[in-house]
Amino acid sequence: xxxxxxxxxxxxxxxxxxxxxxxxxxxxxxxxxxxxxxxxxxxxxxxxxxxxxxxxxxxxxxxxxxxxxxxxxxxxxxxxxxxxxxxxxxx
Length: 91
Known about the structure:
Blueprint: E1 9-18, E2 21-33, E3 40-46, E4 51-57, H1 58-67, H2 72-84
Antiparallel strand pairs: 1-2, 2-3, 3-4
């Protein structure tokens, strides 16, 4: 479905500060398709010299929600807020 905004790759990049390392800055990039992180996503974290990458599957997202005894939709909303500082739309 080319042109459908729900299937385009979306990206969030933000600066992350860690309190135990006040002089350091990290950048977190999150890539996902669709309306939210529920179908899986990719992470890239860098300090400008080194980079760390990870892939999170839809099954992993659902499994984590179950392990935390949270409703999956609520977990995905909280996860998206924490990683991208944006709210998901629940339509």
